Amino acid sequence: MSDTRIAFIGAGNMAASLIGGLRAQGVPAAAIRASDPGAEQRALIAAEHGIELFADNAEAVAGAEVVVLAVKPQVMKAVCQALAAHLRPEQLIVSIAAGIGCASLEAWLGERPVVRCMPNTPALLRQGVSGLFANARVSAAQRQQAEQLLGAVGLALWLDEERLLDAVTAVSGSGPAYFFLLMEAMTAAGEQLGLPRDTAAQLTLQTALGAARMATESGVDAAELRRRVTSPNGTTEAAINAFQAGGFEALVQQALAAAARRSAELAEQLGR
Question: Which residues bind NADPH (predicted)?
Answer without folding.
Answer: 57
